[in-house]
Design goal:
The chain is an alpha+beta fold. The chain has one domain. The protein contains six helices and nine strands. It has helices at about 10-60, 85-90, 90-95, 115-120, 130-135, 255-260; strands spanning about 65-70, 75, 85, 125-130, 135, 140, 155-160, 240-245, 250-255. The chain has a four-stranded antiparallel sheet. A hairpin with a 5-residue loop joins strand 2 and strand 3 (about 85).
Length: about 300
């Protein structure tokens, strides 16, 4: 018995149905992939948080320093013959896997061709709240005790942050690399709160009002979403930043959560000139970056309008 074959019309109908199904399913697959990356970023942040907590257990409950320099065991050496290491190097024995320093939701790129473990350690995609947990006072790093945390579940430890791969105008020339500044830490391992400059040191960025000291503005044209103008904090997932907290839990939060307890209001376009000097702490007990939740941590509380 002769078997009837597909006609051209039937074949085209089948192809059209497959194309329609693909058009419906591909966005779903893309959303599922993005959700998986977001979950991985949250997991990485929590694992880094736990590494810092393990460090604390071995060092009298003190937080890991944001950076140290010229200790004789610092891997990153600058042209001025000074060497330093940031918190990622000091917690490496507890992390064991440098891939945890990558944010899967970012556009990571190894500019120097270094081994991944070196690149990830020097250029982590998660930033440490050094300003309140381990501030640099004078010319030396300090570390505060975790026992001083008045509200650990509402104190930022680590956030997803801006990375060099987010530079839109980098054309293959000299990469602007910032090591530890006098009274500060390397921006490549840091993230900062809204009240930038709460301590006597330089700011990383201006929370929506442009850079203060990061070099030629022509080099950095990164959007606020990528974190360049939000203290280094990157809002890559649903306009939220991935945060690990001092008590060990991790979650994503929005602008208003990280700006709680301040008079912050975003009004200027990202990258526009200006200063955040008018941003002050109006209720220190709610400020998520502060460890003690009072004004004792500020170098100049009266200048920052710090109130309980």
């Amino acid at each position: 018995m002769h078997k009837r074959a597909f006609t051209l019309i039937e074949l085209l109908v089948v192809i059209a149905i497959i194309a329609i199904l693909a058009a419906i399913l591909f966005p779903v697959f893309a959303q599922a992939k993005a959700a998986a990356k977001a979950s991985a970023a949250l997991s990485n942040t929590k694992q880094l948080d736990l590494a810092v907590l393990m460090y604390e257990n071995d060092y009298d409950d003190d937080f890991v320093p944001g950076s140290t320099w010229d200790t004789g065991n610092d891997p990153i050496c600058l042209t001025d013959n000074h060497c330093y290491s940031n918190w990622t190097w000091d917690t490496a024995p507890y992390v064991k896997n440098a891939d945890l320093l990558n944010d899967p939701t970012s556009s990571a790129q190894n500019y120097f061709g270094w081994p991944a473990i070196v690149n990830n350690t020097v250029f982590p995609e998660f930033g440490y709240n050094y300003e309140f947990l381990a501030p640099v006072i004078g010319n030396g790093p300090t570390s505060r005790s975790s026992s001083n945390a008045n509200n650990p579940s509402n104190t930022v430890m680590i956030t997803s942050k801006w990375i060099h791969a987010d530079q839109q105008n980098w054309s293959g020339g000299t990469l602007w690399f910032v090591g530890p500044l006098p009274g500060g830490v390397g921006e490549d391992g840091a993230s900062e709160g809204v009240v930038c400059g709460a301590l006597a040191q330089n700011c990383f960025s201006d929370w929506g009002h442009g850079d203060q000291w990061d070099g030629p503005s022509s080099i950095f044209n990164v959007s606020e979403l990528e974190g360049r103008y939000t203290g280094g904090n990157a809002f890559r997932v649903a306009n939220q930043v991935t945060v690990a907290w001092v008590d060990g839990h991790a979650k994503r939060v929005n602008y208003s959560s990280l700006a709680a307890g301040t008079n912050y209001s975003y009004t200027a376009p990202a990258g526009s000139p200006g200063s955040n000097g008018n941003i002050t702490t109006t209720h220190a007990a709610n400020y998520p970056w502060s460890l003690t939740k009072d004004c004792s941590e500020w170098a100049f509380p009266e200048g920052n309008g710090c109130t309980l």
